[in-house]
Amino acid sequence: MGDTEELANALRDAAREAGLAAAAVDGLRLLSGGASKEMWAFDLVGEDGAATPLVLRRQHAGRRFSSQGLPSVAAEAALVRLADSVGVPVPSVAFELPPGSPAGDGYAMARIVGETVGGRVLKLPELAEARAGMARHCGEILARLHGASGYEDLGLRRIGAREELAALEERHRATGHDRPVFELALRWLKDNLPEERTRVLLHGDFRNGNVMVGPDGIRAVLDWELAHVGPPVYDLAWLCVTSWRFQRPELPVGGFGTREDLLAGYESAGGAPVDRAELHAWEVFQTMNWGVMCAGVAEAFVESSRSIEAGVIARRASETEFDLMRLLAPDHEAWNVR
Amino acid sequence: MFDRPAPSLLIAEARRALDAGVAAGFPQKVVANALGIAQRQLETGPALAEAEHARLRELLDQDGDLTTLNAALASAIRKGSIAVEAPQLVEHLILTTVAKLEIDQPAYPAFKAWREGA
After folding, report:
1. What chain A residue is nearest to B106 in terms of C-alpha separation?
2. Sign of the C-alpha dihedral, residues A204, A207, A209, A210?
3. CA-nearest residue of chain B to A335?
4. What is the number of other CB atoms lying within 10 angstroms of the CB of residue B24?
5. Which of A15, A25, A148, A245 has its CA 20 to 30 Å from the CA of residue A173?
6. Which domains does chain A have, with CATH numbers?
7. What are the two backbone dihedrals, phi and then psi, of residue A103, each rounded to the nearest 5 degrees?
8. Neighbour order of strands in the sheet with A51-59
């Protein structure tokens, strides 16, 4: 459905079907179109003439939703509502597209203004105060999410430490490329990645770049499609991966804060105490996880889907090898070659 | 061992992008990045690869081309036939990784920070 007017009508109908007093959809425009999912901005005009700024996240009808067990984009809305209900800042869901809607599969949510580009979050002067409290706030947000119940019926994938590690190794092998540093990391992880004590609802991609920030702090946590159920440290460690620190590698939490602040916030909001050695082990895991993603892009590039962006991302796998060696052998004298 | 895609593929893709037209700003930067990787690999890659090859021959006490020896090392680590604590192993991995970053991303912030003594 390429026609904007048709999409606007379908949106208005979906809003009405959800019980909203919608008179019209105004100012509909495409914000971003990924390979499968699109974001549209629009104003929902009520029968009283008041306009509510919203964002539509959708994919075209008939396309399979690739995620961690969620059956559809519309089902992701249930997860966002759940996060909202436990105090995680999210764009509140306004309405879902009903099954069979000509608008496709998706949902509409509040249009929130803020910065999402990781490098700019770390640089903009007007965000300085926000940055100072963000590591702690991230800890609080994750503790609330990890304490949530009621996700059991969403059909999310459940995966523990051992299975995560086996899956990581399998994805690495599938790239068909010999990487001694990844082999070293895998061997280390087999000895050092602890079994989880508990499994909780995870965001799955919680990092600088997936949060919307304003001068008042984190306004919304975005990109929920990798949500799944697993060890809580998974989310905490992903936030600390060096690649997400952009120009500020010396600040381990997203380039804006310290692990101490992150964990203090986590525990103050009810998160179970985090063992530092377990966090370190998961940082090794998550660093390699990002590396395997980059390496996977290299395979795709060589096999079929060539683009200049993919070529450059593929050559970022080496940054994770560097970060892995810094994590695994920080004191080795070979570092003195610089 | 440098990662894929090889310089010739990066150059071909950059050329194709330029033929199709590249917008100023970030897209242009991506093309320049790709060409930078290719240029550095063509200029200093051979010497770095030769040093890596020499270290591997000594570490594994084995002959063969770089690809073969790199695969042999990966396999030895996986199977546990080389001690992961062996200082020469770790030294080889650090030096090889540093060489890769010189080519792929000398401006990677964590790499730059280490270079500058952090």
Report:
1. A319
2. positive
3. B94
4. 7
5. A245
6. 4-110 (3.30.200), 118-337 (3.90.1200.10)
7. -80, -10
8. A22-33, A38-46, A51-59, A105-110, A93-96
Picking from A219, A252, A186, the residue whose alpha carbon sits closest to that of residue B77 is: A186
Assembly ipTM: 0.97
Secondary structure (DSSP) of A186-199 = HHHHHHH-PPPS--
Assess contact for A88 and A223: CB atoms under 8 A: no
Residue A253, both tokens: 């939490």
pLDDT in tens, B66-103: 999 999 999 999 999 999 888 899 999 999 999 999 99
**Chain A residue nearest residue B3, CA to CA:** A315
Calpha distance A258→B91 (Å, rounded): 29
Please name which of A64, B91, A138 lies closest in space to residue A130, comparing C-alpha atoms. Answer: A138
**Nearest-angstrom CA–CA distance, B84 and A149:** 42
- Pairwise CB contact (< 8 Å): B104 & A318: yes
The β-bridge relationship of strands A93-96 and A105-110 is: antiparallel
Q: Are residues B94 and A242, on separate chains, in Cβ contact within 8 Å?
A: no
Whole-angstrom CA distances from A20 to A11, A75, A97, A312 are 11, 19, 13, 46
Q: Which helix (H) or strand (E) holds A57?
A: strand A51-59
CA distance B53 to B66: 5
SS3 A196: coil
Contact pairs from chain A to chain B, CB under 8 Å: 139
Q: How far is CA A64 from the centre of its chain?
A: 20
Q: Which amino acid is at A283?
A: E
Pairing of the two strands A51-59 and A38-46: antiparallel
Nearest Cβ partner for A312 among B34, B93, B100: B34
With H, G, I as helix, E, B as strand and everything else as coil, classify residue A119. helix
Handedness of CA A23, A29, A31, A36 (dihedral sign): positive
Q: Which residues in chain A have Cβ-Cβ distances shorter than 8 Å to B113?
A: 249-250
